[in-house]
Amino acid sequence: MPAENNAETRLILASTSAYRRELLARLRVPFDTARPEVDETPLPGESAEATSLRLAIAKARAIGDHTPGALIIGSDQVATLDGRQIGKPGSHERALEQLRSMRGRDVLFHTAVALHDTRDDSIRHAVVTTAVRFRDLPDAELDAYLRIEQPYDCAGSAKSEGLGIALIECMTSDDPTALVGLPLITVVGMLREAGFPFFGGAA
Q: What does UniProt list as catalytic (predicted)?
């Protein structure tokens, strides 16, 4: 059951990611952002789905634990190739290595989202998986892309919301914004369950 709705209930995105902030802004509801202090290191033997979900919940709780009467959205994404986790490259060289390993291959992006309702301390959560097939492109094109967009803070080394879409042959997902970092269809469902008003509170 949703907690009693309150017009003063704050909505907070537990992220300072410009991509997630832009996505949530599409819903045209007021929200704040906050940076969660969470160690994002995967645990030994942890699956990609488990890692992304654990971190999404941890991020939401990190802000929610000291923010009463609020709805906190946490999200995290982990990419895998042949079952092996692919992290953020952090450098040009590692990004090029990632793109070389993924060309002509299918990569799974596991995007977890958690909604911490601090009014009743409940947590709603889900993981949305997007299958992405990368084009088989030569090194010169991969290198040129990286120098233009510099996606070194992005798991998988390609920003699908930008020029990185040119590296992708096709994708399959139940939630089209999940690949960018925040599955909005899933978020809206969670917020509705929590009694958050949309369209000016119209039924």
A: 76
